[in-house]
Amino acid sequence: xxxxxxxxxxxxxxxxxxxxxxxxxxxxxxxxxxxxxxxxxxxxxxxxxxxxxxxxxxxxxxxxxxxxxxxxxxxxxxxxxxxxxxxxxxxxxxxxxxxxxxxxxxxxxxxxxxxxxxxxxxxxxxxxxxxxxxxxxxxxxxxxxxxxxxxxxxxxxxxxxxxxxxxxxxxxxxxxxxxxxxxxxxxxxxxxxxxxxxxxxx
Length: 202
Hints:
Layout: H1 8-28, H2 32-39, H3 43-56, H4 77-90, H5 94-105, H6 111-120, H7 135-138, E1 151-162, E2 168-178, E3 184-189, H8 194-201
Antiparallel strand pairs: 1-2, 2-3
Helix pairs in contact: 1-2, 1-3, 5-6
């Protein structure tokens, strides 16, 4: 396999990416371990870059190998921030994040790369409170243990009914459901006022 020839522009770009990692640890996170997790590199690599930068400046961060590529591919920080935001606020998975970034931001990044970013940030799995649950797990009918202990009462408007006189009459349906037995009682009244409600419950 032919070796890749690095242009000066490529070397400078690689050095700037490595410098961004060092600055992130110093100015943003203030923590080497956090910066390494954020960019997906090991502490050994971080400290090697740091020592070279301290000894030689930006030139020390340029790639020195004749191998095809030894500079870890670093996802731009702004893209990582978007991935984290979509995961935290919309609970998108890697595939959906990939599609969103491509359509809305014209950024092409594979879902496998997105998954690795989420995994190293500890976000590959959503908290239990945010995970999708099956229907029978999400909905639990509210019940009481003793009949008559508590009633659920609802009032709704019934479509006007035409009386014998030709006049349309308005009615209201009162419904009471026992929270234990689920027994339901319905009554129709011409008015929805306090007096009617008391009469219904009595």
